[in-house]
Amino acid sequence: MSPQITLKDSSSDLANVSGSHPVDPSTRFFLVGIGGAGMSVVAQLLHQLGYPVAGSDREEVDTLPALRQAGIQCLVGHRAQNLEPGDVLVVSSAIRADNPEYLRAVELGLEIWHRSMALAFCTQRHRLVAVAGAHGKTSTSSMISHALHTANQDPSFAIGGIITAFGTGARLGGGDAFVIEADESDGSFLNYSPQIEVLTNIEADHLDHWGSAEAFEQAFVDFTSKLRPGGSLVLCADDPAVARLAPRFNPAAQVISYGFGPALPQSVIQASLYDPRLGAGSGKVRVEVRRQGCPVYRGEVRLAVGGEHMLLNAGAALGAAYALGVDLGTFVEGLATFSGAARRMQFLGEVEGVRIYDDYGHHPTELAVTMRAARDLAAPGRLLVCFQPHLYSRTYTFSKEFAQALDQADRVVTCGVYAAREDPLPGINGNTVSDLMGEKARFVENMYAAGLAAFQAAKPGDLLLFQGAGSITHVAHELSENGVAGLRAKAQEGPAA
Model's pTM, two decimal places? Predict the structure, then answer.
């Protein structure tokens, strides 16, 4: 097993990654893994800034045609000869240290940047809004970007998902706000210097990188120290870990807290949400924004996307809007037209009376929240789930928690683990979860065959949810676009992970 390119420590420096900013506009950026959700966003942004951009991926993935259409050279296969003298190589922490392009860059003495360094480069002239947290980053950053756009702020954004209203996860706007989804998984969020930081929640994850829950939490404390002078922290007061760690956060920051419960003692501004029972089912909630106890805004937030977690995300968005100085009434009007981000409880259509949804959640807490929202949507029909575990290490660590979250469904089919950057762990697979669930769950290795099995168990009026951060989305789209016949044909083609 070849090691990955990893952070040396929490200081954000990568091994053999230099990261000085080129000034020559003819400098070509070469992105390894250009088809990935995060890397494809950076490719688009660098291209929009006028730099030559190229990259490679190990296989032909769905994002490459659109990148090529935009004028970005996308190659299939990693080869040393893909690089040119003078290139800046952009990598993620998922890239192995024996990658031929990485090795060639080291040999040639080329600039090597982490993806987060390239993204920071794209944002340096803007007021940067960085959304971080274990869960809810994509939805919250998408919501902020959408509402800023409808409020005529013309924001830029770089998000690890597609905002459905824009059809993209990256855009360079003419306004001074730049919204990003800040990834804590490898410590790369420590490369940013935001004007505004949003912390949705903190729950130990990615312990394969951080080693302990304590180190993971310390990373978020360190993240708040990266705020620009005069910056703002937007914190979820309802999250126990955020509330517990708040006294350790940057003491110079303006603290804006949001939530259904009491505000944080450190907060100068509070965005309070009322009537969660009304809101969770209806997509409505009353809000009041106060500064030092004095109301500055009262109104009602109406969302087109359901779930109490989305209402909390709206509270975070309001806090960010206040910090940016945006008119809150206009901003709230924009929130009402937010239709979600791709793969965040995304409705794909009906097949033979069965509603098909696709969701990216891949941590037990995310899964539990999604299951609750899906149950509400499914009623009076049943909820069926086709679940693809993401990473062997996460499946091993959280198998019981995954089983507990999925137990809210009526029927569950698990498939093989999406390995991403990992090598297999002996004895760990989708059945590690389904075996804990008794008769309501079964394991089918091939993801297309698993999707077919889940659909065949459904009846008209039921909701079938495809769940996971990996390739399971292809199964959902195959079914919604080409029906049962298309899904059956894919299942018969052979192994699919």
Answer: 0.70
